[in-house]
Design goal:
Chains A, E: It is an enzyme of class 3 (hydrolase). Chains A, E: Its EC number is 3.6.3.28. The complex is a heteropentamer, with two copies of chain A, one copy of chain B, one copy of chain C and one copy of chain D. By secondary structure, chain A is an alpha/beta fold. Helices cover about 35% and strands about 20% of the residues of chain A. In chain A, the strands form two sheets. A six-stranded mixed beta sheet of chain A has the order 6-7-8-3-9-10, sandwiched between helices. Helix content of chain C is about 35%, strand content about 20%. In chain C, helix 5 links the parallel strand 6 and strand 7. The chains are: A alpha/beta, B mainly alpha, C alpha/beta, D alpha+beta. At the B-D interface, helix 1, helix 3, helix 4, helix 5 and helix 6 of B face helix 1, helix 3, helix 5, helix 6 and helix 7 of D. Bound molecules: adenosine-5'-triphosphate (2 copies), magnesium ion (2 copies) and phosphate ion. One magnesium ion binds next to helix 1 of chain A.
């Protein structure tokens, strides 16, 4: 279905993504982990064609995504929705308008200029918002919403595109734990109910373990791990993050059940 | 998530309500646009009818004056350098008026701004009265104060300096207080927690944060004040504006001098503009330039 | 010239409030409006130059102006306007004087005493406030009017009223303004800028003295734009020519003081003024 | 770093800082000293005219009534501010003047002036001053002793200035000024049927169907000319409105030409920017003069002058705002496959709108002030009334009236523009 | 030594701190925990007199702190140093100047405004920075430092005050795990080496358990727990935080060793 073949991206002398190759055969939820600068964002952006690959081929159902130009490229972008860490909504426009931006590729330029969307699109947008639990905020400006709500608007915009793939670039990095949970659950639901492929860059291992079917680990632009979450051992994780053994993150854990966390986390992972 | 349980009717209601709302808003926006355009057009015709010459009659003669002025200047081009030297001292006076009044305006504006910013003000009940004072200082055109002062003090640079300084206090006081409002209270609180008094909190906690913005606004004010000081010269307050007015109103026969003065003034304004623009860009480090008000 | 006009515009100058000027010239406006049958409007520009530019640009059709201002228009464009009538004083004479004056307590009693002191002109386009003194005084003192040559400093105060206040305040040591030279000194004469200042209580003539007086200056002309149709020119000329008889109050208002009326005049009366003006130009 | 070096380096750094902290105030003080000398501020104390200041202040809240006798025919004229439009009808006058063969003016506090062929002034605490003006002089007689400071006498003229008023006599006329509080004749002039009516009586007139007549009398008040003043204010506002919004409309398309991210053509961008610099650099003052040749005096000239200057200003500001647009929003819209025009519409336009509006509205207030100044230079609006009133140097109560109106107008524009900014920028939830 | 007696603070109708009473007899390190809005910050701010108590008395060595005014109040503040979550340094000033601000109360206003600090103060400031391991950053601007370094500058400023008590309001909430550890260790060292009382608001239980001698738990303005860290059971913690059993914070934990965290955390606690 989706294939990355030796995809490389260099910025000047700096190689952001280094001959990344992997294949996705069936819809699944994939988490990409790696520390800052590892090339996670660049990887997703190349898939959505916000950034052009320097070399290598990305193909989807036989279509060479990297070669698309003009209208064909935009049409591909509309099938490959992107969710950003900073939401990238139009903050001064209302929530429904932001969601309706998901239809821009399909509608005529002139009618959208004047904000003339078909009524059925508006109803569909509101249904999607309902599904994500934020329909009551429909008439508000995007900037008036909390981070978690804004991210759900961004997801709604993505769903409005009716995409084949949803890409999410650190979708919960700007969110507090409670909202993070809601957003990740929404993405998981979309994958499970609609059967869409979801690829998410994540900065926390726990999240990847809990929600993803497959985890890809990147370090310095290269893919250094690709497998089931269960196979992500402490040693592997340390390698991905380049952390040394002296460092304990337990110091700042926000966990309540410090006395018995391990079984629960394992149970979460098992539940998937 | 409890709110995920969808009630179909409710969804329909939300959708219809939203549709009704945006339609109403679109109508309102349309009406506002029409009203605005009507005001603009009728305003233009009112102004046209109250003017001595009409717009369409005059538009063809728009270059008569510049042509007359620069024609004479070109005819007597060899005299130009002499004029430039002759009027240079007046230019310096104009710049001095602007610089001194900007400095006074910035220093007193700074004090005022700290007194009128809620959270910084040492005497909270003075905040509102002092804000009104700033409003009034800002509202009086410099020319009004200058003319009145000329009556009492006679012509010369001092009335202009006082007039521009007063206006600058009002303008900068307000801008500075807006900057203050965006300043972080954290350092101030940090200093309060070590037992610092008001002066120390302001000087060490606020000023370092806001100084670049202050400076940027003060530079902008300097640009504006150069123009203001040239204009005040026009009504008798010294500087290059005075010479410009006398030569320009004499007309044919002294247009060459007027052109020389005009060139001096124009070059100065552009130079100060560019310089202060550069400095402001450096200060705000590529951030949006502050909004310009005068 | 057969074209018709759709509006007639009068430019007014003088030492009064813009509003007062509008008011005193209202009678002229309505008379002309009735006679021409087109809307007639009054404009009060801020200074002499405003009227000069208006006449040159064709946005003002008629004005009563100082001889030097007329000369300014003439020098810029000989074909723009023609002087048609001149103000006639109550005693039948035409013309007025430029008078130099100073405060008694400043110790200035004559032009000689002004050496090294500050001298004040009015508006650069004023005949009595600049042109005539700048021609006649250098002949008397045998020096130019440049800063520091004979006078310590020479400056323009902006207008007759400002000159009087500047002298009274001591901002300048001596200044020049206009007067008809008739009547008593202590009243500020019967007509002129000094009289206005005395009447409004601005100065006390006991405090100041005359230090110089010019030769007689040709009277202030009423000028009319040449591009106007002949019938309009004729009608307007006729109205003002007979104003002294038909509406003496209006004539007084237009002139800004007691006059007996207006008499015809031609450009020839102002050739000396034009020459003086050219001499003062670069 | 070795600790000792660190210590000494820091101490050195602090003494450097100390020097800078002292240098800045010193430079400022030095500059002010230079200004003090070059502007001759010291000489100011000699030049300042306290009398003028006092006249100005007292005139701004009081008025004077002139009572004048023509010494040749003995006729008496009483008028407010000595102006014809403030004249009392013959045979009438305020209650402190008793008209008759011999007119007596009671200035209060015992100051009595008697007119007639012999004019006398009884000054409490000094004595009686008499004068018999004729062709030879005023022939004044004073109590024994040196003349006090408040009397300025010569053979042909005597002036006496006291706290209650001012008395002048020359061969031709004798005149008394009495100062009273308030802006006299502000509502109706003496020849108006409504002069002197109390609020209750006026209200009665208004309700008995004379409302428009009363309004007309007030509106055309010859002394204060409220109608004309209103039109002048309106013209000033009109100049600001037309100039500001006209400039915004002209500048917006030009700003795209000058923005790096919207116009890749460097030469065109350069040309647009220099045009803006030129328009701004010439300044409204000069534009006014240049345009007044073509358009003559009036509000249109002022509007066009503001329009030209502000096209330069807005062009610069707008193009800077365009260069500062946030790419995140554009990227968000782009990621859905939006076409380039749609990217501008949804990624750029909503960001620009508030910036543009806010800048334009800021200038609306500032241009109200500019319009006042421009009016003073070319002729139009309240600025002209103001400068002319100041130039005559006597109508200070009118000057005060105009200044108050200008301040109120500018503050109203400030409030209005602030209100509009909040309303339009924060309030339009849809951003449509 | 330090005594809170029915100290209450209301903001409008909202009671932020509700009749809080406790006594501290000897220098110790106290952790205050509680969820957001529990009143932790308000409690500390009342002690430093940044906020005035509505009622109740705070006394220190017999001095009624709540009654102080003007110079006496500022003098108390100088003895009771405060460390903030957001550091509250003057970001554009250099590190040493920020540390020297700790002496403001002792020096004359004019001399401090002209940067006239005695040389011995400068030397002492550098010694303190040395002790906290950030002396090499002395000439840099505060804003150029990482969060953890900035917080240590704030601690240095506090030490410069030579205070009787050090208050720390969520000192590690803005820090990454690595820096959090350093900062908490610095506070602990100060308590142990100088014998000063340290009171810290903490948002993580682990931290409180690991570093404090005594833990005070707050909920809705009231003190609901006051005792040894060992006595803080999961049930008590749940009560303090008002968390229900369904919500697991493990979702967003940044911990690496998920498979064997419990023994290590317990070992940490035991080590104290
Ligand atoms: N537009 C660009 N121009 C130049 N270099 C870039 C650009 N975008 C990314 N890079 C560089 O490419 C490398 C990979 O960046 P990328 O944003 O993909 O990392 P990331 O894994 O998403 O990190 P983070 O977690 O910080 O978002 C980094 O070294 C970054 O500096
Ligand atoms: N200045 C204030 N004005 C009004 N209410 C306030 C103010 N400061 C705090 N509060 C309220 O008092 C209550 C306690 O606030 P406080 O900041 O002490 O809580 P906290 O435990 O420190 O929470 P957090 O963990 O969020 O810092 C909250 O409900 C808060 O909204
Ligand atoms: Mg990234
Ligand atoms: Mg808190
Ligand atoms: O030209 P004047 O009327 O001012 O002499």
């Amino acid at each position: 279905m989706l294939r990355f073949d030796k995809v490389t991206k260099t910025f000047g002398g700096n190689t952001a993504v280094d001959a990344a190759s992997f294949t996705v055969d069936k819809p699944m939820m994939i988490g990409i982990i790696g520390r800052s600068g590892a090339g996670k964002s660049t990887l997703l952006r190349m898939l959505n064609r916000l950034t052009d690959a320097s070399s290598g081929v990305i193909s989807f159902d036989g279509l060479d995504v990297t070669a698309l130009r003009g209208a064909a490229k935009r049409s591909w972008q509309s099938q490959c929705a992107m969710i950003f860490q900073q939401f990238n909504l139009v903050p001064r426009m209302d929530v429904v308008s932001n969601v309706l931006h998901g239809t821009l590729n399909r509608r005529s330029t002139v009618s959208t200029m004047f904000n003339l969307y078909p009524d059925e699109d508006i109803h569909r947008a509101i249904n999607i918002l309902e599904r994500l639990g934020i329909a009551e905020h429909a008439p508000k400006r995007a900037e008036a919403l909390s981070g978690g709500q804004q991210q759900r608007v961004a997801i709604a915009r993505a769903l409005m595109q009716d995409p084949r793939i949803i890409l999410a670039d650190e979708p919960i990095a700007s969110l507090d734990p409670m909202n993070a949970q809601v957003v990740m659950q929404s993405l998981r639901d979309i994958h499970e109910q609609d059967g869409r492929t979801v690829i998410a860059n994540l900065h926390t291992l726990d999240t990847a373990r809990r929600y993803c079917d497959r985890v890809i680990g990147m370090r310095d632009g290269r893919i250094v791990f690709d497998g089931l979450p269960e196979h992500l051992t402490t040693a592997t994780a340390r390698e991905i993050y380049g952390a040394d053994a002296s460092f304990s993150e337990a110091t700042t854990s926000t966990q309540i059940e410090t006395t018995d966390p391990a079984p629960r986390v394992l149970a979460d992972v098992a539940a998937q | 998530m409890a709110d995920k349980i969808v009630n179909v009717d409710q969804t329909a209601t939300v959708g219809d309500a939203y549709l009704a709302q945006i339609k109403k808003k679109r109508l309102m926006n349309f009406i506002m646009l029409v009203v605005f355009l009507a005001l603009l057009v009728s305003g233009f015709y009112t102004a046209d009818s109250r003017n001595a010459g009409g717009f369409w009659d005059g538009i063809g003669n728009i270059f008569d004056f510049p042509a007359a002025m620069f024609g004479e200047a070109i005819d007597r081009a060899p005299l130009m350098p002499g004029y430039l030297v002759e009027y240079f001292p007046s230019l310096i006076e104009t710049i001095n008026i602007a610089a001194a009044s900007t400095l006074i305006g910035a220093l007193l504006g700074l004090v005022m701004s700290l007194l009128v910013t809620r959270g910084f003000a040492p005497v909270p009940w003075l905040v509102n009265p002092l804000r009104r004072v700033l409003d009034i200082l800002r509202a009086i055109p410099e020319i009004v104060i200058a003319l009145v002062l000329i009556f009492m003090l006679g012509g010369g640079p001092v009335p202009a300096m006082i007039a521009i300084a007063l206006h600058s206090i009002g303008a900068l006081g307000k801008l500075f207080s807006e900057v203050n409002e965006n300043a972080s209270l954290k350092p101030v609180e940090g200093l309060a927690s070590v037992g610092a008094n008001w002066m120390q909190r302001m000087w060490l906690g606020v000023i370092p944060q806001v100084a670049p913005n202050y400076l940027s606004y003060a530079l902008l004010r300097f640009e504006i004040n150069i123009r203001a000081s040239a204009i005040l010269g026009f009504v008798g307050a010294g500087g290059i504006g005075y010479d410009l007015r006398n030569t320009m109103s004499w007309g044919v026969g002294k247009y060459d001098e007027a052109a020389a003065i005009f060139i001096l003034l124009f070059l100065t304004i552009v130079a100060v503009d560019q310089l202060s623009g550069l400095m402001r860009n450096r200060l705000t480090n590529g951030a949006a330039t502050p909004q310009v008000t005068s | 010239d057969g074209h018709v006009i759709d509006e007639f515009r009068i430019g007014i100058l003088g030492g009064e409030n813009a509003q007062d000027r509008m008011n005193s010239n209202e009678c002229l406006r309505s008379t002309i409006e009735d006679a021409l049958g087109v809307p007639t409007r009054l404009f009060a520009p801020a200074d002499y130059n405003g009227v000069i530019q208006g006449l040159l640009g064709g946005t003002i059709d008629l004005s009563l102006m100082g001889p030097s201002s007329y000369a300014a228009v003439y020098v810029a464009d000989e074909t723009a306007v023609t002087p048609i009538l001149v103000k006639v004083n109550v005693d039948g004479s035409t013309g007025y004087y430029s008078v130099g004056f100073a405060r008694i307590d400043s110790g200035v009693a004559s032009l000689e005493d002004m050496q090294g002191k500050v001298f004040g002109f009015g508006d650069p386009n004023s005949t009595s406030g600049y042109l005539i003194p700048s021609v006649e005084i250098p002949d008397l003192i045998g020096a130019s009017m440049d800063n520091g040559d004979y006078f310590g400093e020479v400056k323009f105060t902006g207008g007759h009223e400002q000159t009087i206040v500047a002298v009274n305040n001591g901002d300048v040591d001596g200044g020049v303004t206009w007067t008809d030279g008739q009547g008593n000194w202590e009243d500020g004469y019967t007509f002129g800028a000094l009289r206005k200042a005395v009447d409004s209580g601005l100065i006390d003539m006991n405090d100041i003295q005359e230090i110089w007086r010019s030769k007689l200056i040709p009277g202030e002309p009423v000028v009319l734009r040449n591009a106007l149709p002949d019938d309009v020119r004729a009608t307007v000329t006729e109205i003002i020519d007979t104003l002294g008889e038909t509406d003496p109050e209006c004539a007084t208002a237009l002139a800004g003081g007691e006059v007996s009326g207006f008499d015809p005049i031609t450009h020839d009366a102002y050739t000396s003024i034009v020459a003086a003006r050219l001499a003062q130009s670069n | 770093m070795i600790t000792a070096t660190l210590h000494s380096a820091t101490v050195a750094q602090f003494s450097r800082k100390k020097r800078i902290t002292f240098a800045v105030p010193l430079v400022i003080i030095a500059y002010f000293a230079y200004i003090f000398v070059s502007f001759d501020v010291a000489g100011l104390s000699e030049r300042i005219n306290v009398d003028n200041a006092r006249t100005l202040v007292s005139d701004s809240y009081s008025y004077k009534t002139h009572v004048a006798q023509d010494n040749r025919d003995g006729s008496i004229a009483i008028s407010v501010e000595g102006e014809r439009k403030g004249e009392y009808p013959q045979g009438t006058g305020p209650d402190w003047v008793s008209l008759g063969d011999i007119t007596v003016v009671d200035l209060g506090e015992g100051h009595i002036i008697t007119f007639g062929p012999q004019v006398s002034y009884d000054i409490p605490g000094y004595g009686l001053v008499t004068a018999r003006p004729d062709g030879t002089g005023v022939n004044a007689e004073f109590p024994d002793g040196d003349l006090p400071d408040f009397i300025n006498a010569s053979a042909n003229r005597v002036m006496i200035t006291t706290d209650v008023g001012r008395f002048t006599i020359t061969r031709a006329r004798a005149e008394v000024f009495k100062y009273s509080l308030g802006w006299e004749l502000f509502f109706f002039t003496l020849d108006s049927p409504y002069y002197g009516l109390g609020p209750a009586e006026l209200a009665a007139k208004v309700f008995s169907g004379k409302a428009s007549a009363v309004w007309q009398e007030f509106w055309t008040n010859k002394m204060w000319r409220h109608g004309d003043v209103f039109w002048a204010l309106f013209e000033t506002l009109l100049m600001a409105f037309l100039g500001t919004f006209g400039a915004a409309i002209v500048a917006l398309p030009l700003a795209f030409l000058a923005a790096r991210n919207f116009n890749p053509l460097g030469s065109l961008r350069f040309a647009a920017r220099r045009l803006f610099d030129f328009l701004r650099g010439v300044d409204g003052l000069i534009w006014t003069i240049v345009l007044s040749r073509a358009f003559g005096p009036g509000p249109l000239t002022g509007s066009l002058a503001i329009l030209l200057t502000d096209t330069g200003t807005f062009g610069k500001l707008f193009s800077e705002a365009l260069e500062n647009v946030d790419d995140k929003q554009i990227e968000g819209v782009a990621s859905t496959g939006a076409k380039p025009v749609q990217r501008y519409r949804f990624g750029v336009f909503p960001q620009m709108m508030p910036v543009l509006l806010s800048q334009v509205l800021y200038y609306l207030e500032s241009n109200t002030r500019s319009a006042t100044i421009i009016g003073a230079i070319t002729g139009g609006g309240i600025g002209l009334l103001l400068t002319q009133a100041i130039a005559t140097q006597k109508d200070w109560e009118e000057v005060t009236y105009y200044i108050v109106l200008i301040i109120l107008l500018v503050m109203a524009m400030d409030t209005l523009s602030g209100w509009l900014r909040r309303k339009l920028i924060k309030g339009d939830e849809g951003g449509h």
